[in-house]
Design a protein that fits this description.
The protein is an alpha+beta fold. The protein is built from eight helices and six strands, in the order ααβββαααββαααβ. A six-stranded antiparallel sheet has the order 4-5-3-2-1-6. A hairpin with a 2-residue loop joins strand 2 and strand 3. The longest helix has 21 residues. It is globular and about 75 Å long.
């Protein structure tokens, strides 16, 4: 008898809890609009605070130079840009490699860069880096990196080595706009 009474009381509580307010399964349009409007600023803020990295591969130019650009940005601000250029070695360098070997050519290339005052001046600028590597007897790679969180763009633009790069013009664009322009010019996003 106790079990029946307890079961009946539990059933009454259960039924009473289910029957208090009847709501439709679909939220009203006002509630949905409110929810969307209240989350839009959160989504926009998340997009502005998300660090994005995109790699662009540009088509080879008429001299066979293949360029890859890696752009890192947050919102409308460039954070870093790395440009990697691969190209065929010059005839003079091919001849030097044939006479002295690949390792000697690498050493001579490094010594030549170390003697170049404009390269050395640019290397002293915080936020800028350049590396040149002889990949093989036929291919050379130059990698330039710009860290815009550290780089003094005005100072860099005044240096002999970087004055024609156009850093100030680059930064006038928003990163997404810069990427769209490169894609419109034939680059592919990886």
């Amino acid at each position: 008898m106790k079990k029946i009474v307890i079961g009946t009381v539990a059933l009454l509580f259960l039924l009473a809890g289910c029957g208090q307010k009847k709501e439709s399964a679909e939220p009203s349009k006002d509630t949905t609009t409110e929810a969307l409007q209240s989350t839009l600023p959160v989504l926009e803020n998340a997009n502005n605070n998300t660090v994005v990295t995109k790699t662009l591969v540009l088509p080879a130019d008429e001299n066979g130079v293949q360029q890859t650009q890696t752009i890192t940005y947050k919102g409308k601000q460039f954070l870093t840009l790395t440009i990697q250029q691969k190209r065929q070695v010059s005839e003079d360098l091919k001849n030097f490699i044939a006479e002295h070997g690949l390792e000697e050519a690498r050493k001579a290339l490094k010594e030549g860069e170390d003697k170049d005052e404009s390269v050395q001046e640019a290397r002293k600028i915080p936020g800028f880096n350049i590396e040149t590597n002889l990949l093989s007897e036929t291919e050379i790679e130059t990698k330039t990196s710009y860290d815009f969180q550290v780089l003094d763009v005005k100072k860099a633009s005044e240096s002999e080595y970087l004055k024609n790069v156009g850093l100030e013009n680059l930064l006038k664009n928003e990163p997404e706009e810069y990427i769209e322009n490169r894609v419109a010019s034939g680059a592919t996003v990886q």
